[in-house]
Structure formats: structure tokens, C-alpha cells
Description:
Bound molecules: glutamine
Strand content: 25-35%
Order of helices and strands: EHEEHHEHEEEEEEEEHH
Largest sheet: 6 strands, mixed
Amino acid sequence: MRIRVGHLYPEYLNIYADRGNIAVLARRAALRGHELDVTAISVGDGVRPGAHDLLYVGGGQDREQALIAPDLAAKGPAIRDAVADGTALLAVCGGYQLLGRGYTGRQGDDLPGVGLFPHETVAGERRMIGDVLLDCAWAGRTLAGFENHAGRTRLDADAEPLGRVVAGFGNDGDSGQEGCRAGRAVGTYLHGPLLPRNPWLADWLLSQALAHATGGEPPELEPLPDRLEAQAHAVSARRARDRGGRF
Ligand code: GLN
């Protein structure tokens, strides 16, 4: 199967190896006989409804976020429609912030958001940096990664977090929540990149994207050995437990 991926602003939003998430999705798709067809979507490009099975956006500094935020907000209706029609989505850190209702930067500048995720972000004085470990009860799994953000993201009361913080800061350093889920869309502060050390989430995203591509149910993907991935997860989880969530 050809899996059509729209990579939003690859030249602006790509820090802490976020581009590596695309490489992992491509490799894991290929190992199951599928092909990832990645298109860059940048400033001035449109998002055609139904054209993508998966949308991806990485993280970025306040400066890069400010450069693309108005253009991304203008793509908001098309992105919300695409996800409502079953397109899967992964958004990391700066991209995750801008897929909420907005981000107020450290200079007090208000950046518009897409309003896909039910949250708002305001930058704080101290950056929240370090390894993170999450418990994702909805999947019976854990997620491990690295965070570095000034933004404090407040989810609406009825919003679904991606996970409960076991170690680390997470969305705001005190709610104990990290990330957000809305149907087939996932947002998170976790860099690293995220997917090499959390292959189950890569497979979950691929399965949702295949469901969009076929119009059917998310398929069960053939398991892979994932020995190195499991080791990387264990190391990251241990680092988070040892020193995550401390200024
Ligand atoms: N610039 C945003 C912040 O500082 C996002 C940073 C990032 O993507 N790592 O919170």
C-alpha cells in the first residue's frame, strides 16, 4: 500500500532530530511491504482534503514558529477537516503547540493556532528540559523521550492527554499530563526523535494511516524484533526516572 504523508514545514520545524520520525515510519512501513510517499507542505502550499493518510509536524524555536504560524493557521480548516475525515497526525513540541488554539511566546507575542487540539500554551520563564517517561493507559504502554520547551500547555478539562507523567515535566510541569489525543491525531512534547525508542506508537500511527488509505479498520501490523528499540527505550526511561522533571 502507498501511504501518503504530508510533512508540514520541514525546513522550519525540525529540531532534536524530529525529521527522524519520518525515517522510522518509512522503514517500518517498508518492512511490512508498504511504501511511504512523503510530500513537503510549506508556506503558501495548500492542504487538499483527502490527499494525505498521515500529517506530520516537528518542533521549533519561537522564531521559526512565528515565521510560519499565520500560514499554518490559514491551513487550519483543511487540517481539521482532514483529521475529522480520518487522516492520522503526529505533532511534536512547537508543532503540537501551534495545533492548539495558540501560543503566547516569551516576548508576549500571540501566535495563532489551528485549534485542532483543545489546549492553549503560554511560555514560562524557565525552560523545561530533560528526559521524560509517560504511562499511556489507553495503549497499555509507556513512552520515553526528551523535552525542551518554555511553553506551558493547558488542556481543556475534557481533553484526552497522551499519557500520565511518570518522570519529567510534561505539558506544564504540574498537571501530571503530557501531550494530547484527538481521534487519530497525537500531539506531544517528546523529541529524541520520539519514534525510534517507541516503535509501538510508530506502528499505531501507520495502522491508523492505513485505515484511512483503505477506508477500512486499522490493521494489525506484523510484529518486528525491535531489540535495539527496546534497549533505547529502557535507557531513556532510566534517565527520565533518574533525573527527569528537575530544573
Ligand atoms: N519554542 C517552543 C517552546 O519553547 C517549542 C520548543 C520546541 O519545539 N522544542 O516552548
